[in-house]
Amino acid sequence: MSSVPTVKIFWSGGFDSSFRMVQLSRQKVAIQPCYVCVGRRSEQRELHAIVSIREDIEKNPETKCTILPLVKKRLEDIPPDREITEAYKRLAQQYHIAYQYDWLARFCKAENIFEIELSVDKDDRGLSAFLEACGKLTAINEGCISYYVIDNAGSSQDLSLVFGRFRFPIPLYDTTKKQLVELYKEYGYGHVIDKTWFCHCPIKGEPCGTCGPCRIAMEAGMQFRFSSSAVERYEKYRKRGKLRRWLESRLRWIELRLAFLLIRLRLINIARRMSIRLRLIDS
What we know:
The protein is α/β, with parallel strands linked by helices. Helices cover 50% and strands 13% of the residues.
């Protein structure tokens, strides 16, 4: 009799990772969820979401999986790793990627964890675009479990060092948040959507609308997850961002004009000095 495979996953109680938990629940697997405590204001809400959604999964008659106890690790207990951190910094200089990938990679190395799932969907444009720009992904199919991994041969050494221990589950990686809403409902977990938590900086117990995860959700058409005040905050943030980008573009134009002006003045001064020298030689 074959043993039941164990699937390790970072579970934050958020929309994407909770969907993956629901999806895996229909398979005969043991799920090992992991959570890193970083001291965010939203931490207790995330842990509450994990407990509540876990109860829903375990009560569902179609559940075939076994969910192992949540592995929790405090950020301050993750040992430093200069090699990983330096690789992350070099990547972050080229692309805007969240700082969490540094300590997630260090956590995996310290705990000797390989092949742990990182829930990324198609609307996480920053990360997916970054992964595809810096390297190559290879699809792996292991029966009921499919996922992408970093192809070390076709990827930079820094990318492999930081992201090489992660799996990116299929079809989640190729699915938009709007499509995931429908899949939640198809699985009979439509009610779980409102239990998930993604905001890092809640205001009066509600998603703020302006932190990174909130902006990703807004831009993916998930406004129904937000109050009217959160939507209003997001719109103000977006308009300020447009104004800031416009000002930055104007400043760059002014800097460019000034640079050309300085070069022109310098060339004029050089020409004048040469002219003076020539006149002195002729005299």
